[in-house]
C-alpha cells in the first residue's frame, strides 16, 4: 500500500514536471520573435536561444494528406523538433502555367496544399526546413521537374534563359505562399535550402545566385543553406551567401571535419543522414542494421551536430511518380525506383514504428540539452485484411482504347511530351499506344524499333499480345525493355491483311539524378519503327494517362476472361458506413505479373512480380462507404482474385 502511494506521488511529481515543460514554440517564441536561425557561433541560435536541429524528412507529396497530422505527430513524439520537406514542382505546376496550392481544383489539389502541411506542422509543435529546389532529386519523377519543360530546348539546373524563365514564373507563385509561413513572420519555417546537392551538377554559380535573388525578392528572409556531400567542397554553394551543410550516413567526424574547415566557428549540420535506402525493381529490399544506425546517429548527435534524417518516413511514390537512375547517355542502364518508398525508415511506409524509431527517441531524450514537452507516440491502429475479392469486370485492351477521348492522328510518331493535349503541356505519365490500322503483314515479317525504348513495350496484333510476358529480370535484355539497342520481334507466321498493330509503351519513371536530359518517353526522336525494311508512318496515338475522372467514368464492364493479357480487371470492395473511417491495408500482388493498381480512381502505384515490393499500401482514407472500385491494369497475366495483407511484403528477387 505504502509503495503504491509513493509510486502515485512519484507519478504526480513526474506528471507535473512534464506538464511544466514548455512546448517548442513556448520555449523559443514565448517572449516574442526578434530573429530567426542564426549561424554566427558554434551552436545554432533560434530567436537568440541555442538550438540543435533534430529534424526528420517527411514529404507531404508522398503521404496521403489525411494522414499528414498522424505522421507529423509521430515525428514530434520521437523527440525531433523539426520536419524537413522538399517542394515538388511537378505537384504545384502540373500543366504549364496551371498552379496548384490547394485551391485550383486539379487532381493534385490536396497534395498541392503545402500551406496546410506547414500549418499542421506548427500545430504539432514542429519547426520546418523547406527545400524548394527547383530540382529536388528525391527519387521522385525527374527530380521534381514537370515533364512539360521537355517541350522546349533548355539546360535544366543552369542559368539557361529558357529554363530560368520557367523557374522564375514558378518561384514567383510558390515563394509568396511559403513566405507567409516563415519563422520571423510567426510561422514554422526556419530555413530554406537552395537547389540540391549542386556540387554534383554543373557548377553554374550564376544560376545559384539567380535562385538566391528570386528567393530574397519574393520575401524569403530566413537562413538560406546548401547541402552536398562533403567531398564537393564549396562547388555546390555560395560561400558567405549560403550556409553549408553536409550529407552522409556514417563517419560524421569526416564530413563535419570538412565543414569545420569551410566554416570555422559555425554550427555543424548534416542535411541528409541516411537511416535506410530506396529500392529499384529487381534489387533486394534495402535494410540497415538498427545497431549500425544507432552508433552512426549517436556519433552525429553527440559530436555535437544538428541532423536531418533522410527519410524519417518515406511514404509512397503513388501514381506514376517514382524516379529512376540511369548511366550517362542512352537508356541502357535504366533502373526504376519502386512505388514503395518505405526506405527502411524509422517510420514505415504505413506509419508503423520500426526499431530505429525507439533508438531516436532514446538518444534524443539523452542528448537534447533543451527539454520540451514531448507527446507520447500515438497508438497504432491495426490494419485490416479485407476479404479476398473475386474479379467482377474486365475491359480488354481494345475496349480500353475505345473509351479514350483524346487520341491523335499523326504522320510521324510523337513522344508523350510532344502530344497536343493537356492545354499543350503534353502527356506526363502513364502509358501510350501507337496504333497502325488496316495494314497488311506478310508471314515472317519483323517489327524493329531503333534505339533504346523508353521504357517498356508490348506489341499487340489485332488486339492480342504477341510480345513475351515478363518472366524475370533477364528479360530486360530482350525485346520489350530498355537495355537493347535496335530491338526486333517477329510479328506473325501467317499472312495478315487489314491488321491492327499496337505498340504500347510505358513511362516507367524519369531519371531523378545524374544525366537529366533526354527524358522523353514513348517513341522519342531516337525511335524509328520499321515493318521489315519499311519505316511506318500514319499513326493513331492514344495517351493512356489514367486520369481520375476518366477512370471513375468507366462503365459497361465486360465479364472476366482470365486468359487475356493487357486489360483492366475490376473488383469491388463493399464497406458499411463507419463513423471512424476505414482501416489501412495492403493489396497483395504476388500472384499478378506487372501493372498498376487503382482504387476509387487513385493510382496506388505499380507492381512487378520480380519485386522486391510485393504489396501496395492502401491508405484507409482512400476508402469509402459502399462500393470501392479496385481496377488493376495488368500487362501480362492476371490472377483470379484480389487479396489483402496486413503488412508490406518484400521478397528477394
Ligand atoms: C542501330 O541502328 C542504327 C541505325 O538505325 C545503327 O547506326 C546502329 O549501329 C545500330 N546499333 C546496333 C547495336 O546494332
Ligand atoms: C475526356 O474525358 C475526361 C473524363 O470525363 C475529361 O476530364 C477530359 O477533359 C476529356 N478530354 C477531352 C480531350 O475531351
Automatic annotation (TrEMBL):
Residues spanning the signal sequence: 1-19
The EC number(s) this enzyme carries: 3.2.1.23
Classification via InterPro entries: B-gal_1-like, BetaGal1-like_ABD1, BetaGal_gal-bd, Galactose-bd-like_sf, GH, Gly_Hdrlase_35_cat, Glyco_hydro_35_CS, Glycoside_Hdrlase_35
Keyword presence, Transmembrane: no
Pfam family, one: BetaGal_ABD_1
Gene3D superfamilies per UniProt: Galactose-binding domain-like, Glycosidases
Segments forming domain Glycoside hydrolase 35 catalytic: 43-366
Residue ranges crossing the lipid bilayer per the database entry: none
Keyword field: Glycosidase, Hydrolase, Signal
PROSITE patterns registered for this protein in UniProt: GLYCOSYL_HYDROL_F35, PROKAR_LIPOPROTEIN
Enzyme class: hydrolase
Molecular function, one GO term: beta-galactosidase activity
Keyword Calcium set for record: no
Reaction(s) this enzyme catalyzes, per UniProt: Hydrolysis of terminal non-reducing beta-D-galactose residues in beta-D-galactosides
Biological process (GO), any one: carbohydrate metabolic process
The Beta-galactosidase 1-like first all-beta domain, residue ranges: 426-544
All copies of domain Beta-galactosidase galactose-binding, residue ranges: 566-628
Family per similarity comment: Belongs to the glycosyl hydrolase 35 family.
Name the record gives this protein: Beta-galactosidase
Species of provenance: Zophobas morio
